[in-house]
Design goal:
This protein is an all-alpha fold and 129 residues long. It is 82% helix and 0% strand.
Length: 129
């Protein structure tokens, strides 16, 4: 998954070189032909799919676009981290990040209640406990 994300950042002029490198990897037996063929088909379909994505994102509300961009950013972060530190460690890191996000949202939602409770339970002037 990590290498396919990095191929998306290659300029168009470097794509033939990536295909040649993929062919060499198949010849040397370091990867399967099916994986290289999947990457080639994916890269070939990208120019055809970009106008479709553009139209779909124009129709969506701005907050849905923000959520989609955040999800894509998280997927990109996960792919690069799995490339650098390994798949299992990246899964663990992504799980911890998701748990922190859920905890943060719950804290944000319960903040008004906690603030009112603190204000109600605050000792009065001159009283010490």
């Amino acid at each position: 998954m990590g290498w396919s994300v990095l191929l998306g950042f290659l300029p168009d002029s470097a794509l033939p070189l990536a295909l040649v490198v993929g062919a060499f990897l198949v010849i040397l037996g370091l990867t399967s032909a099916r994986r290289v063929l999947g990457l080639v088909i994916g890269l070939a379909l990208l120019p055809l799919l970009f106008p479709l994505f553009d139209r779909v994102f124009e129709l969506l509300p701005w907050w849905v676009n923000v959520l989609v961009v955040l999800a894509i950013g998280l997927l990109l972060f996960r792919a690069i981290s799995s490339l650098l530190i390994g798949q299992r460690a990246a899964d663990h890191m992504t799980g911890n990040l998701a748990a922190d996000v859920v905890r943060g949202v719950l804290r944000l939602l319960t903040w008004p209640v906690r603030a009112l409770a603190r204000a109600a339970l605050r000792p009065g002037d001159g009283q010490r406990y």
